[in-house]
Amino acid sequence: MRWPAKPLSLCLAASVLWCVPAGAAGDYPTTALADYVLGCMQSNGQTRDSLERCSCSIDVIASIMPYADYERAETFRRMAQLNGEAGGLFRESAPAKAAGSELRRAQAEADVRCF
Question: What is the DSSP letter of 2?
């Protein structure tokens, strides 16, 4: 018996969607994922094991916080490294502290699940 093309393609599409892990980093740009994994691997060793753990880590973070929040927190973190008053603004403001706290919580959960 031959299946009609449309129901078969719908069935295949549904099975692919079902196989994608929940909370995957789908809305994070590839460059952001790669940047995180490379930085994580520099801190944890350049091994296959660290690649898998670091990839797991960004997936967990992506499941906890939307990309816009992650991007905001990373921007505050990078800008906080400036010297003087300029950096102080990015370290001490309420939005900077809230964004940093959210990212630290997501990273702590990622560490528990992946490392």
Answer: P
pTM for this model (two decimals): 0.75
Residue 5 lies in a domain: no
**Number of independent structural domains in the chain:** 1
Burial class (CB in 10 A: 0-12, 13-18, 19+), 15: exposed
pLDDT tens digits for range 12-57: 333 333 333 444 578 999 999 999 999 999 999 999 999 999 999 9
What gap in Å lies between CA 106 and CA 62, rounded to an integer? 9
Has residue 48 been placed in a domain?
Answer: yes
Residues 6+ apart with CB under 8 A from 62: 23, 24, 25, 26, 27, 28, 70
Q: Is residue 22 part of a domain?
A: no
